[in-house]
């Protein structure tokens, strides 16, 4: 933070703050925290095979994790979020971190979906003509690559059996949550774990899209 303050021009920051339009601040904040609510619901779905958390308990954990992301480098706020959930709810921190890793995979697929949908539309509207040094053919190849990556991700999700089984995360959840620390009234036994349920996949992907959409309206 000190290095950042040393490198920035405080005079320019002051001028920007004085010339900013603050009428949009309140709606933007409301949209942002609304998007965080959808992320809390999504995280609840990912954690539901292990324990059912109220959204009201997960919401402040996610807010604190995002605050740490703004202050710490390399998205270390995700570690803070998993540690804080473990300390607050007596949950296993490694299991929480595994679900956050699954979140990131869904985020990537969601962004690929947005790119796959928007690239052909922007191309038809002529937004890529003469906008940069890339030729029209190059933009067609990039758009086709986005569509191919999205379709490939969908096939991979279908063949892998769901988000919680990606890269063996589901077995890791089984092994790690067997400790007494991870068990609490309300915890579901291992025989009832249903990693990769189709309903959970659909809900997680849909809520991920809802998380990205409201901040986009605020831009």
Would you give an account of this structure?
The chain has 219 residues and is an all-alpha fold. It is built from nine helices and no strands. It has one domain. Helix 3 crosses helix 4.
Keywords:
single chain; 219 residues
Oligomeric organization of the protein chains: single chain
Radius of gyration: 21 Å
Shape: globular
The residue ranges in which pLDDT falls below 50 over 5 or more consecutive positions are: 163-185, 187-198, 215-219
Mean pLDDT: 75
Share of helical residues = over 70%
Strand runs, count: 0
What's the number of helices? 9
- Whole-Å distance between the termini? 25 Å
Order of helices and strands: HHHHHHHHH
Domains counted in the coordinates: how many? 1
Strand content: under 5%
Structural class: mainly alpha
Quickly describe the structure.
This protein has 219 residues and is an all-alpha fold. The protein is 71% helix and 0% strand.
Describe the secondary structure blueprint for this structure.
Elements: H1 2-7, H2 10-19, H3 25-47, H4 55-71, H5 77-89, H6 93-124, H7 136-160, H8 169-176, H9 198-218
Helix pairs in contact: 3-4, 3-6, 3-9, 4-5, 5-6, 6-7, 6-8, 6-9
